[in-house]
C-alpha cells in the first residue's frame, strides 16, 4: 500500500533524541487516552503555487503558526481518528485506512479546504506508523491511536477559504477508552443542544462539531453521565448519535436498528463494519429512524435488549442507562447483560488485531 521512495513526497528525518526504551515502556504501561505521544510526526504543506509539498516525517514538535492563521479565527480544521494494532505474529496492522483517507477528503470538501490526495494521506500514515512502530503496544486492548488533521494556516483575517494548509499526523499509545467496555455506561439525552443540522457540517469530522458539543457534554457530566446522545435538530425526536460515536439498538427479534446517514450523522467506519459483521452473523440490520419515545417504550416492554455506541476510539460501548429530564430508564439490566454487543466487539477486535482470518480485506499490514 505504501508508496515507493521515488513517488513519495515525504522525506524521513528520524529524531536525534528518541525516547529511551525503558522510559518508553514505562510510559506505555499506563498510557491513558491521548497523552502518551510517540516520537515523530508528519507535516505536509499546501500552497496554491506549490501544491502539496515539503512533506516530512520528523521529530514531534510544536507547529509554528502565525497568530493570524485562519484556523485560529474561522475554524477551518478537520481530523481523522484511526488505530494501528499489533498482531500475535508481531505484525503492525491498520484497519480500513482507505476509508479514513476517503472520509478526510469528504470532510475537506464540506469545510471548503484543499483535499489532500488519498494516496498521500495513506503513505503518510504508513510512514509514521512504521517509524514509530515501537509505540504500538502488545497485549489485549492497547493500540497506537493515529490523529491526522489539517488546518488553514494562511495568515489573513478575511472570511474565505484559505489558500495555505498544513496537514499533520501525530500518534499516541492508548489503552481502553472506557474503564470497562463490557459494562454499560449511563448517557445523557441532550434536549437543549443539537450536534448537527441539515445543511450543516454533521458529516464532516471537524473540530467545530466537537466544540459545539461540549456544553451538552458538561450538562451530561453534571447529571452523572459519561456521554451525550443527540436528537435531530428539527423535531427533537429522532436519535442521531453521540458526540463522537454512532449508535445501535438491539431488538429481541435478531434485528439491529441504527439511524440512517441522512446528512447530519458522521459516516462511522466502525458503524459500517458492524453492519457488515452483524449481517454475516444472521442479524437483520435496519438503517431507519428511531425515536427517543420508542426507545423508552421498547426498553420498558423488553422489546429492546441492548443499546450500544461505537467508534474507533472506544470500539463498542454498551449503554446501561438513559437519563433526561423526563425520567431515566435502564437497558438490559443496567447494561450488565450485553451478549450481542460483546459478540460483535469480539469479532471486530479479533479482525483488527489480526487474531482472526479477515475475509473482508479490511486489514492492511504496515
Ligand atoms: C469519529 C466519529 C464517529 C465514529 O467514527 P469511526 O469511523 O467509527 O471512528 C462517530 N460520530 C462522530 C461524530 C465522530 O466524530
From TrEMBL:
Cofactor entry: pyridoxal 5'-phosphate
Biased composition (Polar residues): 1-10
Catalytic activity annotation: L-isoleucine + 2-oxoglutarate = (S)-3-methyl-2-oxopentanoate + L-glutamate; L-leucine + 2-oxoglutarate = 4-methyl-2-oxopentanoate + L-glutamate; L-valine + 2-oxoglutarate = 3-methyl-2-oxobutanoate + L-glutamate
Entry-linked Gene3D superfamilies: 3.30.470.10, D-amino Acid Aminotransferase, subunit A, domain 2
Modification sites for N6-(pyridoxal phosphate)lysine: 205
Pathway entry: Amino-acid biosynthesis; L-valine biosynthesis; L-valine from pyruvate: step 4/4; Amino-acid biosynthesis; L-leucine biosynthesis; L-leucine from 3-methyl-2-oxobutanoate: step 4/4; Amino-acid biosynthesis; L-isoleucine biosynthesis; L-isoleucine from 2-oxobutanoate: step 4/4
Primary enzyme class: transferase
Cell membrane keyword on record: no
The enzyme's E.C. designation: 2.6.1.42
Any one GO molecular function term: L-isoleucine-2-oxoglutarate transaminase activity
InterPro entries: Aminotrans_IV, Aminotrans_IV_CS, Aminotransferase-like, B_amino_transII, BCAT-like_C, BCAT-like_N, BCAT_family
Keywords: Amino-acid biosynthesis, Aminotransferase, Branched-chain amino acid biosynthesis, Pyridoxal phosphate, Transferase
Origin superkingdom: Bacteria
Function (record text): Acts on leucine, isoleucine and valine.
PANTHER family in the cross-refs: BRANCHED-CHAIN-AMINO-ACID AMINOTRANSFERASE (PTHR11825:SF44), SUBGROUP IIII AMINOTRANSFERASE (PTHR11825)
Similarity comment: Belongs to the class-IV pyridoxal-phosphate-dependent aminotransferase family.
Protein's name according to its UniProt entry: Branched-chain-amino-acid aminotransferase
Organism: Zymomonas mobilis subsp. mobilis (strain ATCC 10988 / DSM 424 / LMG 404 / NCIMB 8938 / NRRL B-806 / ZM1)
Amino acid at each position: 500500500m505504501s508508496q515507493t521512495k521515488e513517488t513519495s513526497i515525504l522525506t524521513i528525518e528520524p529524531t536525534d533524541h528518541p525516547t529511551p526504551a525503558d522510559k518508553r515502556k514505562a510510559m506505555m504501561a499506563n498510557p491513558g487516552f491521548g497523552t502518551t505521544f510517540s516520537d515523530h510526526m508528519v507535516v505536509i504543506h499546501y500552497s496554491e503555487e506549490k501544491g502539496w509539498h515539503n512533506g516530512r516525517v520528523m521529530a514531534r514538535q510544536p507547529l509554528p503558526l502565525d497568530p493570524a492563521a485562519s484556523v485560529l479565527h474561522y475554524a477551518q480544521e478537520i481530523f481523522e481518528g484511526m488505530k494501528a494494532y499489533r498482531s500475535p505474529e508481531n505484525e503492525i496492522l491498520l484497519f480500513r485506512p482507505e476509508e479514513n483517507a476517503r472520509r478526510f477528503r469528504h470532510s475537506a470538501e464540506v469545510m471548503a479546504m484543499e483535499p489532500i490526495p488519498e494516496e498521500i494521506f495513506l503513505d503518510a500514515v504508513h510512514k509514521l506508523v512504521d517509524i514509530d512502530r515501537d509505540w504500538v503496544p502488545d497485549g489485549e486492548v492497547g493500540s497506537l491511536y493515529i490523529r491526522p488533521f489539517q488546518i488553514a494556516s494562511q495568515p489573513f483575517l478575511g472570511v474565505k477559504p484559505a489558500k495555505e494548509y498544513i496537514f499533520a499526523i501525530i500518534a499516541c499509545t492508548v489503552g481502553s477508552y472506557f474503564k470497562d467496555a463490557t459494562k454499560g455506561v449511563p448517557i445523557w439525552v441532550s434536549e437543549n443542544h443539537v450536534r448537527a443540522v441539515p445543511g450543516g457540517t454533521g458529516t464532516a469530522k471537524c473540530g467545530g462539531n466537537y466544540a459545539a458539543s461540549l456544553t451538552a457534554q458538561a450538562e451530561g457530566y453534571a447529571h452523572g453521565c459519561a456521554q451525550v446522545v443527540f436528537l435531530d435538530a428539527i423535531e427533537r425526536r429522532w436519535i442521531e448519535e453521540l458526540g463522537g460515536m454512532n449508535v445501535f439498538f438491539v431488538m429481541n427479534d435478531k434485528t439491529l436498528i441504527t439511524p440512517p446517514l441522512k446528512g447530519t450523522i458522521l459516516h462511522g467506519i466502525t458503524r459500517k463494519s458492524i453492519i457488515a459483521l452483524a449481517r454475516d452473523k444472521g442479524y437483520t440490520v435496519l438503517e431507519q429512524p428511531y425515536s427517543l419515545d420508542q426507545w423508552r417504550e421498547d426498553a420498558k416492554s423488553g422489546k429492546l435488549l441492548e443499546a450500544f455506541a461505537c467508534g474507533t476510539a472506544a470500539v463498542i460501548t454498551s449503554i446501561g442507562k438513559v437519563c433526561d429530564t423526563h425520567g431515566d430508564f435502564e437497558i438490559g439490566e443496567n447494561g450488565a447483560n450485553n451478549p450481542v454487543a460483546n459478540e460483535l466487539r469480539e469479532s471486530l477486535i479479533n479482525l483488527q488485531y489480526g487474531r482472526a482470518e479477515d475475509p473482508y480485506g479490511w486489514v492492511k499490514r504496515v
